[in-house]
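Would you mind writing out a protein's amino acid sequence and the numbers that encode its backbone to help me picture the idea?
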Amino acid sequence: MKFECRQQLNQMTNAITMDNNYDPRNDNEFRKISHDDQSETAPQFAMRRLVKRTINKPSCNIDSDPNHDISQEQNEQQSLNIHHRPSRQCAVHMEDQPFDQFEKRYSEQCQHKERTICDMCVYSNVEAALKDMQITSLTCPEPGCQAVFGYNEVCEILLKNNNQVLFELYDRQLTHQHLEQMSEFMWCP
């Protein structure tokens, strides 16, 4: 039964998001509510109304399911983006991500005013470079930015993504590189 509800919800969601003929001016309920609350757009209103109607259907009573997990329901509602969160499209994978994925520049040397690449893509870029042993050429992936990520920036990116193994590898490679630059250093045979 729960699967059928999800299937119905997905079908109805697709119908609303694909329906170019939906006009909130013809929707009395939307006009009444939007007159009072200007913060909700027509698609957001339609999605909220759709979810409310679907969840309240007798054949779709998820509360009567003893195996129903409330946190799962909350996750599903968040994934449907019922509550609008400011977002931006990532320039790498072209999907909307929450603004907090673009918050700060990783380096003070960055030349861009705001980021267009999300945290996960920046991490993936650093991860790929380190796996290719390119520890000295880690630059900001933002278009036109030539800032080189230093030790602190790389550590922050790796540890923020809980990659302790790659952090230790990077730290070890960097240490070896600095040791080899010392004239009095020699590796033991």
In short: Residues 30-39, 59-65 have pLDDT under 50 and may be disordered.
